[in-house]
Amino acid sequence: MKERTVDQFDPVCGDLVTDATHTVGHLGAQFVFCSVQCKERFQSHPGLFVGCPGEKAPKQAGEEVIKQRCMRLAFPLMARKANEVEDCLQNLLGVKAVNISEDHVDITYDLLLISAEEIEEKIIACGEYLGHSIRDRLERVFVHVGEQSEISSLEVHYKKKAD
Fold first, then answer.
1. Which residues is 101 bridged to in the sheet?
2. How many CA atoms lie within 13 A of 157 on its CB side?
3. Are the CB atoms for 95 and 115 separated by under 8 Å?
4. Where do you find CATH 3.30.70.100 in the chain?
5. Is the pTM of this model over 0.70?
6. pLDDT digits over 66-104, tens only?
């Protein structure tokens, strides 16, 4: 059976999608995505990518929200492991730059596409541990809360018209 071609642009990353492998219905429309990562990002924050009549979503307007963070690891990385982690992070949607030096990960990313919390989860999935001092944990919590607040304030929310 031949797969249906859709030739639509992924609302998250902007790539051309030619098959309907990853789809989501939202506000009566069907959206297609090039990857699970784009689909999940859309599902968690559709108002960043799809606006409503008279109001474009930030991504539709071409906006980026560039963040730079220094994440502290629990232990310094040897060169080979640092390269593995760096490659792993570079493959994430929205990551612009990664530099790992001993126990620090300096990373630049677009908050519309990925959050610090998601980056931290990927570091852990790569087998590394984040700094575990009270200071490190509190700093991460404040970053997460701040980013969630910023994302919420950027999202376009569909307002149903009163009859």
1. 104
2. 5
3. no
4. 66-154
5. yes
6. 999 999 999 999 999 999 999 999 999 999 999 999 999
